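PROTEIN DESIGN WORKSHEET
SECTION A - STRUCTURE
LENGTH: 220
C-ALPHA CELLS:
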C-alpha cells in the first residue's frame, strides 16, 4: 500500500473540515491518523475491486470516535486522482466502468459495505460498523447467506447478484445486501434489495428497498 498517497487522500477527502491532524503513523500496510475529531485507521481492503488492473490500492478507512465507527472506502488508481467511494457522485461515475474494467460483482460489493447505512444520500454516506474490525455491511452472494454466512432465521428470501447487459452496453445489476449493528442486548441486521442501472456513456443510478428491519441474530 502506498502509505504516503493514502495519508494524503484521507486528509483531502475523508477528514471532516473541522479536523486538524495531530499525528500520523505509517508502516508498510497501514496508516493511522490521530485528529482533533476522531482516530482514522486505514488498511488494505480485501474487496474484489482491488484486483482490477487499473487499481493500485483499495483502502478501507475506519473513523473511530467511541463508541461510533464509520467506514470509508478509497480507491487509488494507477493514474488519476483518488476516489472517495462514500460520495454518491463518485460511485455513480465509477459505474461507467462496469463490464469494462470493473466486474459487476466488485461494484455490488462496494455498495454492500459502503452504502449499508440507514441514510445513503450525499454528500457523504456514513455507514456505521459495530466495531473497528467488523464490516459495516455485506453483499449477499448466495441464497443461503442467512443460514451459512450470518445466521438469521427470520431474514427474508435472498438471491445471488444478477447482471444483464444490452447490446448497446446498458446494464442492470440486482443484488441483496445487509448491515450489522448492536442493540441493547442483541445484534441485528436490516436487509436491502438493490437495482442499479448504468452504461458506458452515463453514470449509474440506483434504488434500494428495505426488505426487513431489525432481524435479530441468535445469541451465541
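SECTION B - SEQUENCE
RESIDUE ASSIGNMENT:
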Amino acid at each position: 500500500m502506498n502509505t504516503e498517497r493514502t495519508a494524503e487522500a484521507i486528509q483531502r477527502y475523508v477528514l471532516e473540515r473541522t479536523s486538524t491532524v495531530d499525528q500520523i503513523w505509517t508502516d508498510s500496510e497501514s496508516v493511522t491518523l490521530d485528529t482533533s475529531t476522531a482516530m482514522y485507521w486505514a488498511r488494505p481492503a480485501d474487496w474484489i475491486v482491488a484486483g482490477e488492473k487499473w487499481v493500485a490500492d483499495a483502502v478501507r478507512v475506519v473513523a473511530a470516535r467511541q463508541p461510533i465507527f464509520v467506514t470509508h472506502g478509497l480507491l487509488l488508481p494507477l493514474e488519476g486522482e483518488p476516489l472517495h467511494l462514500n460520495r454518491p457522485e463518485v460511485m455513480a461515475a465509477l459505474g461507467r466502468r462496469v463490464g469494462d474494467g470493473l466486474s459487476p460483482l466488485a461494484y455490488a460489493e462496494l455498495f454492500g459495505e459502503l452504502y449499508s447505512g440507514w441514510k445513503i444520500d450525499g454528500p457523504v454516506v456514513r455507514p456505521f460498523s459495530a466495531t473497528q474490525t467488523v464490516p459495516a455491511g455485506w453483499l449477499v452472494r448466495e441464497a443461503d447467506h442467512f443460514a451459512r454466512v450470518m445466521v438469521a432465521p427470520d431474514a427474508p428470501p435472498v438471491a445471488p447478484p444478477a447482471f444483464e447487459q444490452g447490446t448497446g452496453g446498458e446494464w442492470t445489476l440486482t443484488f441483496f445486501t445487509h448491515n450489522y449493528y448492536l442493540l441493547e442486548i442483541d445484534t441485528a441486521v436490516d436487509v436491502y434489495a438493490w437495482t442499479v442501472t448504468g452504461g458506458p456513456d452515463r453514470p449509474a443510478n440506483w434504488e434500494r428497498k428495505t426488505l426487513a428491519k431489525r432481524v435479530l441474530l441468535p445469541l451465541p
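SECTION C - NOTES
The chain has a mean pLDDT of 96.
Helices lie at 3-14, 88-94, 104-114, 145-148.
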